[in-house]
Amino acid sequence: MSSPAIFPFKSNIDLDRNSNRHLYLQLCDQMIGFIKSGKLAPSSKLPGSRKLSEDLSIHRKTVIAAYDELMSQGWIESIPARGTFVSQDLPIVNPKKLKDFSTIIDTKNTAGFNFKKRKHLIRKGIKTLLIALKIDDGVPDHRLAPIEDIAKIYRNITKKAHHKELLMYGDIYGNINLRKALVIYLNQTRGLKITVDNILITRGSQMGIYLASQLLLNDKKTIITGNTNYMTADNTFTEAGGIIKRVSVDAQGINTNEIETICKEESISTIYVTSHHHHPTTVTLSAERRMHLLALAQQYKFAIIEDDYDYDFHYSNAPILPLASNDTDGNVIYIGGFTKIIAPALRIGYFIAPKEVVDEAARLRRILDRQGDTLLEQTLARMISNGDVQRHSNKVRRIYKARRDLFCKLLQNKLGDFFDFEIPKGGMAVWLQLKKPYHWDLIISAAQKQNLVFINDWKRYDNNNSGHNGFRIGFAALNEEEIIEVIEKLAEIIPNTIEK
Length: 500
Ligand SMILES: Cc1ncc(COP(=O)(O)O)c(C=O)c1O
Known about the structure:
Number of strands: 16
Bound molecules: pyridoxal-5'-phosphate
Structural class: alpha/beta
Oligomer: single chain
CATH superfamily of the largest domain: Type I PLP-dependent aspartate aminotransferase-like (Major domain)
């Protein structure tokens, strides 16, 4: 075995005594780095443990522990009566210049291979200070989530021996008890007429939108959405290979006459609707247009993806039953979930469709995410069956209604000169159109300086560059004091910014 010149460990090893990582492991990491980079070639002789411990001013036992670890990983070998060497069987690497060494053990940013980069999925990150007051576009108040109840039931289920099979690979359609509970819950609350065969449990509504898009939109199939529309859904359709056509949205919701005109001219695969509260403008699809849309779906044989993301939040009257409740010919894929009722981190949603569609979606889901959190699904099944979910949903609906009322009243009183808006009948956000010729950019940057952070970019609502000047602002996640503070700050900022 040849012995190239001893590598200058003393000047190249840099151990951090304040780090949480053991010194011997730091030494290992760095020696592996030298070997991988070629600075320590196969068969190089390593200094004895006494010498190295003196050079590095560390305990000899630390060096011995590092050498033992490197030996067990196969990086080095000990030859009786000769010493310790870098393993001779390792491949030879062309050494890099010493100054490049530090980059080898740093986390790398750049891949050494080609892969598809999706520019359309990049979102402008907005930095928010922890103390900043945030303006979102309609999310639930996670502080209201019944976390104690969830934790208690989850723990109870986890502990019980007869529930241990929930820790195994399970049904690709999702927890059977949750599907059974959902049959009753959805048939009662939404007028659906489904059985367990029509339900696939997903991780939130977004997974449902993704699966439906993958089933429906390959090979440049056309999907019609509203102008303007929920941006993430648009991205999902484009990603699946679909071509988006847009029709207008007015006070009655998505314009079904325009849909009919397009259907007469070309083949349409899918229509995406947020029928209960259109995203972002919050309007409800009128009864007449609902009937029209279903009739068109039957005539032209397209699918309707009905994204009922905030069904539970309707304040002025009883919620309007979804299109899915009148779907006699199997045209609707109905998507919903519990992320808005309980909390966004509770990733449980459902995908409701004719059995053959559910079967296909379940097979597709399996290759993306084998199954969801079965314990959490079982927890939710119990919370639906014992009425916890309905009680919580009633409670937050009352709270959000009061927040909507306060938010809209203050908005009208203090900022009515600058905005056009309708009081939303439901949901968690208001659609605010800034009167021309004012501009959101000015307001957003002035607000940022006052610690009032808009976490979304207004351009996401203008996906067709129509210049509608609209912004969706959430009220549900702000308590009374926060609402007052937001409006007061805006009332200070906006006139000053605009009149400058
Ligand atoms: C219109 C719409 N659909 C779907 C989703 C996705 O919801 P989930 O968190 O259940 O995936 C959202 C989330 O904000 C939404 O606004």
